[in-house]
Amino acid sequence: MKRNRLIAALALFALAAVSGAWAQTKGNLEIEHPWARATPPGASVGGGFATVRNAGAEADKLIGASSPEADRVELHVMSMDNGVMRMRQAPSFEVPARGELTLKPGGKHLMFLGLKQPFKAGEKVPVKLRFEKAGEVEVQLEVGSMGQSAPMPMHK
Question: pTM here?
Answer without folding.
Answer: 0.80
